[in-house]
Amino acid sequence: MPISELKLAKELIRKPSITPKDAGAINVLAKNLRSLGFNCKVIHFKNIKNLYAKLGNSSPNFCYAGHTDVVPPGNISDWSFNPFRPVVKNNKLIGRGANDMKASIACFVAAVSKFKNQNKKFKGSISLLITGDEEGTALNGTKRVVKYLKRKREKINFCLVGEPTNPNKLGEMVKIGRRGSITGRLTVIGSQGHVAYPHRAKNPSNTIIKILKRVKELKLDNGTKNFQPSNLEVTKINIDNHADNVIPGSAHAVFNIRFNDKHSSGSLKRKLNTIFKSMTKKDKCKFKIKYEVSGEAFITKPNKTTYMIQNIIKKITGVKPKLSTSGGTSDARFIRNIAPCLEFGLVGKTMHKVDESVLVSDLKKLTKIYQNILVSYFEWKQEL
Description:
By secondary structure, the protein is of the alpha+beta class. The chain contains nine helices and 19 strands. Helix 1 (5-13) runs antiparallel to helix 3 (98-118), helix 3 packs across helix 9 (360-383) and helix 5 runs antiparallel to helix 6 (265-282). The longest helix is centred in the C-terminal third of the chain and has 24 residues, at 360-383.
């Protein structure tokens, strides 16, 4: 009996798996996968529960990647229904995680169940790499599972990440890469003093304002063939000063850069450090900077698999998907170190919002898309 994508999606949504809590979501998924013959390995890293499940042992290994953790629902009274008691209304499945991304996981499992019923002797393996730490720091999720798989010499030949890639309509977009992300935490250190005697102090507030203006005005690039322009955004400014008549001793700011393949995190650090050094020296201040690199820019060069997936999506939805690198980061930034990967899932219009929802008709279409991808992938690989 094939697994129902709607039923499994509801089961998963009922588990309030707000990062870093699993709340039983991985167990629900593993139970369904074991019923299909998958060997399920639950992998714990600190307080995070991850899952690597595999059907078969031969090559090629087609992997689906995703996450069962969700963002907090916010004020539950703002929802039309309890976010963890899924409801179907007007052809919409409503609940936290409906499109980001529990329903996508359910669609892939349903697709595998149908594929397996019709292709009992397929040559190859199907695997799922599922984490409970995508919406949080992502330190103990896919990043560490990838390292674990490398140590175990587990080979993944291709990975499809089920993130909600479509802006408004199913079939609009396949992600073939992502921009990189680097966060900078800047502190400018001056010397404290009385506001009436500014010549006796070195005001770091003035310096950090000038620095932020300078870096914000940087023209990093005009975009590239596959990427939109890089952008720097100041996200926090903090001057911890409780007295109105005191020049502070330090000032702090946080910024984030989303960068394309014209840059690396290293080249951006060098560029920024040169500016910080020059401007603080001029004002006789000092600086400290701490960088956090979430991921480098990357692209999976379109090939036969890319176009096969693109054609299947068009056939089922009537829409030819754009191959894109837009949006934020995803766990594809970790997986691309061990396998070529693309991203395709549901419509992300309501993700992280009150009354997050997905069309039930889209669930059926996505299941069909995933099933057809599996059929074509393994047929093509057998021909090689």
